[in-house]
Amino acid sequence: MGNNMHLFLDFIPALILVLVASYICGNLARYIGQPKVVGEMIAGILIGPSFLGIFAPQTMSTLFTADVKSILYILSNLGLGMYMFLVGAEVDENKLTKSLLRKCTILSTSGILVPLLLGVAIGFFYYSELSLPNVHPFLFALFIGSALSLTAFPMLARIIQERNLTTTHFGTLALLAASIDDALAWCLVALITALAQAQGVFAGVSAIVFGAIFACFMLLLVKKWMVRLGDKVEKAGSLSINHFSLILLLLLLAIWFTDYIGIYSVFGGFIVGLAMPRHKVFARELQSKFQPVVISLLLPIFFAYSGLNTDLTTIFSNMSLLIPAIVVLIASIAGKYGGCALAMKSIGYSWREASAIGMLMNARGLMVLILVNIGISYHIITTELFAILVLMTLVTTIGATPVFNLLYPTHPKEKRGVIDLKPLPKQS
What we know:
By secondary structure, the chain is mostly helical. It has helices at residues 2-31, 36-46, 52-55, 57-63, 66-90, 98-125, 127-130, 137-149, 153-162, 169-197, 201-236, 241-260, 265-274, 280-308, 313-316, 319-346, 351-362, 365-377, 383-407. Pfam families: Na_H_Exchanger (PF00999).
């Protein structure tokens, strides 16, 4: 009991620092026109070795002991599973039409294929410099390709929503393409983690097969039951505590099961989210019950844990790391922004709109931070590459909002040269 109380007393000050830093940096980010998540990402880095470790190393080591880090790791993984559950629950396949599906396919394919190929090329080129010796070159290259392919879907959704573009073809296309893009990328991540954990080819294939069975079970069988539950919630006007408990239990089982079979827990959370019904009342109740705890408590803990593993000083103090960092950053922008902008232009949008959506798709945000934590947890990447990918994430995420506002201004008089897209027709 004494040891547990001692651990509790050690953990609470660390948690308070995490939440205070997240609150201050998040609100400062909003003040300068950036999404709150950008400030929270920076807060995580500030309390780690990149800042606090330089100016107050003793304080950092006292607050964030090995035991405290273990608790942060557990809570951050729980938070990620729940967060990806909320992301999956926001993906609305009902908005797809044949025309929009064709455009989404072109945009999402360009958004994932071009940066994936560039990332794989970089991975093979820098394998000897940046990889761990026991990691297969193909797995290492595939990991970097995945990191460059991801899009910050929740951040993109918030920007689209804040600009009242959700019901336009532009906004719907961006949202659906980003969701498809990330769904494909996370399937790739599932493959990577399965191969990373596998003791052999058979074990890796088994993890993938069990993952596919799990996804089919959730999306074909459980989803039907959830639709009936959604109908009940819609009639009642609220989600009862019993139904909420069942959903939470289902989510925790999925998180545990996918991690157990060798696929990272975020995949389980995302699939359960996709299985949720899209009824208005159900969606509102789900967000209102999960979001406060996930956004205000668990995600800041994840950012803190990521920040404690990130040492940006290793990049700027070592020229041999600075050059690969610049190469990764340039390739990430050229692949994601360039690929998406060219795809948008090819399907009839103006260069200005094509550039605007390309910049939104180029933001990595929380998604890549999740991926690099997977990489460090499964010993796929080094701490140096971890820092390089975090730096790439910060730059692409911070640049997304101001460049999008410049290309797609809010004020109608400033929208010269930008096509005003009509709202989507209401489905009968």
